[in-house]
Structures are given as C-alpha cells and as structure tokens.
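hiii so um. not sure if this is the right channel but i have a protein structure encoded as tokens and i wanna go backwards to a sequence. like what aa goes where. can anyone help
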C-alpha cells in the first residue's frame, strides 16, 4: 500500500532526461519513491495512508547544502557589520572560549535551531564540518533530516593535539556513521592547508585508508597565502599536499578555491574531485585583494561544482535558493552573462550535490527506487503567476518562504508550513536562553539597531598557543592575512 501520494503537482524530476511533469503524481512506499507518473483520476480519491493535493504547487528534490559550519548558529547578527578581519578575530575567540564558558547547552541549542531553519528552508541534506559533531549528528537524526558530518580537524586552530583530534574523529566515525536509518553519515574533515600540521595530514591519510568509503571534506585555496601554507607541510601547493597523502580523488570535496587558477582547475578535474562553492561569504566582506572563483576553467574541464552556505555568522542566511541566485549574479558580474542556466543551478542544489556527497544513487532526483526526499513549493500566488520557464521561476523568484511541505526518507517533516518533526517553541526558547547567556558571558552589547563587541576583545583572553603555532608554521603572513 502506498504510504504517501502527492497528486496534481508540477513535478521537476531532475532525472537524466530533465523531465518535468505538468500534472504528476509521486507515490512513496517504505520511504522510497515507488512511482513518478501522470496523475490519474483515481489518485484524487486514493486510499493511501497520506494524500497531498499539490494542485498549483511544484515538487522538486530536497535541497542539499553542500558546505556548512553550524556550531555558531546563535551568533546571528553579532558580526554582520564588522569587517572581515574583525570578524575573524571574534570568530577565533568564540571558537576557543564558547565550549568551556557556555557548555554543551549552547551548542545543542545552536544545532537544534540550525535543523529547524534548514527544514523550514527546504534543505533536506546538509554536509557539515564542525567542532561539535556528536551534537550535530543527534540533532540532525532526531529532526528527521539527512546529514553528512565531519569533526573539523585543525591542530593550529584548536588546543587539542593532532593525535587527540584524530582519536576523537575515529570515535565519531565508529559511533555515528550510517546511523538514524542511514540518514546520518560521517566524513573526514581536515580544516585545510591553513589549519593543519603535517602530523595531522599524516593521521588524516591513515583515517582515509581505514575508511575508504568516506568523503574527504576540506577547505582549499581560500587564501592568497595557500601555497606558503602548504609548503609548511612539505608540499609545493595545496593540491600537491593532498596528492602526497593520497587524498585527492573522486571522494574529495574541496571548498572555496577562491585563489585557485586554471592549472589547479585542470588538476582537480583530472582527479574527479568536487568543488563546493560558497559565493556570498566572500562578496559580503570583499576579503582583501584577490582573484575570484575560477569558474570558466572549472567549466572548461567539466568539474562538478555545487553550492553551500558556509558559516551562519558571516552573513546570517539560510536560504540556499537565494545563494544559488547570488552565485549566478556574481559569476555573471565577473565573467559575463550566461555562466549558468537556471536548470544548472537547480541541479547544483540537488543531483550534482548528491553526486558530490556520494549519495546520487539515493537522493537528488525524483525517480522510482530513490529515497523520498522532496520539497513542495507554492507558486500559485500573484507573486509568481503567470509564468513560463519554470526553472527560472524557481531560481530567480522563489525564496525559501515559498517552501510549503518537506519530506525526508518518506517522512513528512513539515506540511503546509507546519513543522511536524520538531517542537518549534521548545527550540526557540532554548535558542533565546542560550543567546542571552552568550551575550552576558562575552560582553557583547546588542539592540535592535545593531551589535557592539566587547571593549577588550575576547581574543586577548584566550590561549595564544594555537596562534603561535600558526606563526611558527607559516610565518607572520598567516596573522596578517587572517587575524590582523
């Protein structure tokens, strides 16, 4: 018997034929899509366990946020008016003070709020790199969402030693990988050439050898000093660093690449690695004199490029659809019009993102046999009607506020904007309480008009050890680039 039937929908399948059904039905049985077909008269009187009349609505695959840091969801608005260097100083300080000062309750509330925001924004899968991955795995699993999570490994930025971090990463993998009915999986997530010692990279290589099916998720070329930083680990450049440790292949996820060039793009494509692009974070702060994301070269070599939202404290956004729109506008501004079509962008948020995470046999398109991760979007409003070119409407006009219903693994997590899988008021109350504790303990002053950091930066109250190790490894250029 069909568990869920959605009928009379415009179904954007994102399948290999790019099929769009003008009047379609989706049947879900045991969490999987059992049929995607034209709506029959009998569908409207179906005896399925749950029936959704989607007349005038669009159904697309669930959205996938390909790169996210989640620990500091609760700092929204605090950093928004700081320049990039000031923000980084406060960010480093929070990373080193929040855990002992605020405790697990702060991060638990942050993860719960993040899950609620992702769910209500139509994001059904997130690829996260965080310092509190256990809390994240449990929050994602209990909310009904799907997530890939890696403990962020960065011994130049974290007081814990490389060995300690690697032991914890192994424990996390053994405990949480392939849990919550397979919705929660683990990755191996070194912070990148800027934050990791040679010793840590050696340990990462051992982890990768022991867990060959896991994705390797890292930052690369997000600084003009990237080659110098890689040299500190005995490599010619960041790609050579990964290659030396046998970490560059089709299971590798490379984030940012802001300062990569055409040759780097070719090497990435040759390896089959995937690129996670987060455009707004850099355009928001204009982070110094820099080249821009090398999109034409990546396209030339047919690299799989997908989109992520990055840190919530950078620009306070959870709308992945709008991030895709920004990606196109910024690319067009830099390189000329028509860098991506609307359908390209939709695929980057769905099937291409699923391929990057190694999940394209399970999610990313609406096809029989795949898990039922889908989003119902209301376009039957004056803001959207009348229209043609539906992909353009989805990527240019629709926002996360148009998301009406969210299904993951066949379970309805939100229907007609009513969240079913989480206690919304409890999540909001915890977030409010912990946000107030954050402000009290750190000395931030906030009002409706804005936010002001403490008079004496909390950066001065943390141990200098991680920063001094960074100077030893990379020279004064690291501090000048990142925390001056």
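sure thing!! here u go:
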């Amino acid at each position: 018997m069909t568990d869920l039937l959605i009928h009379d929908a415009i179904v954007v399948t994102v399948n290999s034929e790019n099929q769009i059904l003008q009047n379609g039905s989706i049947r879900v049985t045991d969490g999987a899509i059992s049929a995607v077909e034209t709506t029959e008269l009998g569908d409207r009187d179906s005896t399925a366990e749950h029936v959704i009349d989607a007349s005038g609505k669009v159904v697309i695959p669930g959205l996938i946020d390909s790169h996210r840091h989640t620990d500091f969801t609760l700092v929204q608005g605090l950093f928004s008016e700081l320049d990039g260097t000031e923000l980084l100083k406060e960010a480093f300080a929070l990373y080193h003070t929040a855990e002992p000062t605020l405790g697990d309750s702060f991060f638990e509330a942050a993860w719960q709020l993040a899950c609620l925001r992702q769910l209500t924004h139509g994001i059904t899968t997130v690829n996260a790199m965080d310092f509190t991955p256990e809390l994240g795995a449990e929050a994602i699993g209990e909310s009904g969402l799907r997530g890939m999570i890696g403990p962020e490994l960065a011994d130049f930025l974290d007081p814990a030693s490389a060995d300690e971090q690697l032991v914890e990463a192994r424990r996390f993998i053994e405990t949480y990988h392939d849990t919550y009915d397979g919705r929660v999986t683990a990755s191996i997530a070194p912070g990148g050439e800027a934050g990791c010692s040679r010793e840590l990279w050696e340990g990462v290589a051992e982890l990768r050898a022991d867990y060959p099916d896991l994705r390797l998720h890292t930052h690369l070329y997000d600084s003009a000093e990237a080659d110098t930083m890689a040299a500190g680990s005995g490599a010619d450049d960041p790609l050579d660093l990964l290659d030396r440790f046998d970490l560059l292949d089709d299971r590798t996820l490379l984030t940012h690449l802001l300062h990569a060039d055409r040759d780097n793009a070719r090497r990435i494509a040759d390896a089959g690695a995937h690129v996670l692009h987060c455009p707004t974070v850099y355009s928001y702060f204009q982070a110094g004199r820099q080249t821009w994301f090398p999109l034409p070269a990546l396209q030339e070599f047919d690299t799989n490029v997908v989109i992520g939202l990055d840190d919530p404290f950078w620009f306070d956004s959870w709308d992945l659809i709008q991030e895709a729109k920004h990606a196109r506008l910024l690319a067009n501004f830099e390189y000329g019009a028509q860098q991506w079509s609307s359908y390209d962008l939709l695929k980057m948020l769905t099937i291409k993102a699923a391929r990057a995470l190694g999940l394209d046999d399970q999610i990313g398109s609406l096809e029989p046999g795949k898990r039922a991760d889908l989003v119902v979007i209301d376009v039957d409003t004056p803001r959207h009607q009348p229209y043609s070119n539906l992909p353009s409407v989805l990527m240019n006009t629709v926002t996360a506020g148009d998301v009406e219903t969210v299904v993951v693994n066949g379970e309805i997590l939100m229907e007609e904007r009513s969240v079913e899988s989480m206690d919304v008021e409890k999540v909001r109350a915890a977030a409010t309480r912990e946000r107030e504790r954050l402000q009290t303990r750190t000395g931030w002053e906030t009002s409706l008009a804005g936010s002001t950091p403490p008079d004496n930066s909390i950066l001065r109250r943390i141990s200098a050890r991680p920063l001094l190790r960074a100077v030893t490894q990379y020279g004064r250029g690291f501090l000048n680039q990142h925390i001056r």
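oh and The first strand starts at residue 4 and ends at 12.
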